[in-house]
Design goal:
The protein has 286 residues and is of the alpha/beta class. 43% of the residues lie in helices and 19% in strands. Strand 6, helix 6 and strand 7 form a beta-alpha-beta unit. The longest helix is centred in the N-terminal third of the chain and has 26 residues.
Length: 286
Amino acid sequence: MLVPVDFSEMSLNALNHAAQVAKHFNNDLVLLSILEEDFLSNIFSFSKNESKDNLAMEAMLGRLKEKASEIKSQFGVNCKCDVRIGKIYKTIIETADEYGCDCVIMGTHGASGVERVIGSNASRTISYSTMPVIVVKTDKNPNAYRNIVFPLDLSQESKQKVKWAIHLAKSYQSTIHILTYKVGDEFLNKKLMANLKQIQNILDENGVNHSETVLKDDDDFARRTLEFAETKLADLIIIMTQQESDKSIREYIIETYAQQIVNDAGNVPVFCVNPNYSTYKSEFII
């Protein structure tokens, strides 16, 4: 699992979260710090100098190794450390791919944040990542994803996150709380209820506890999802980052539904799955 670390409070919260998840799944962590070229130019009086760049990278690597030692001592989790120069979201994705990571766990303040690994970088990482991204805001204890909220809509992509939900639920003995809604069109409503029934059957076949809540309509589904997560004392919300365009239903993309969930989820971590993701690797997902 890869964790971007800029030593802001949010990124250290994400690191603490990741360490506990990694311990649960007996995984290693990759701690990544990214020095942007503009940032290096500023601290070195706008001059490009390879030796100065190396000094900055070595200093950051030293800080990362100290943090890795703390994680090893506290959680027994091994950490690899890497410092790179580049665009934040591109470097996160490239590094995670190179290390064969199962997911990225990163901190964010949402749209109003001021730390460097935040806002647009989190959104872009979520949008372009070929692996799930878990977004963390607080240092809430993540020892167990016991209550997982699973929003369900009409799109085919919405069902792709079922495998992830099952893997997590089996490992943490979780309850999956499915949230969906009725639509005015009778044909589409039957389609949605058929999707719900299919997911119920899959969860039953895998011995996963679950509950279902059907809203009367899809009015402001993001807000309703967050309210629902609060009532269920959710430990995790699993969402798709993008949905196939369908003129007959609301189009959910990272700039709208998913972005609202990530920005406003409060203390609840958000597990973001890109619908293009089709490969499941390593012990994290069994």
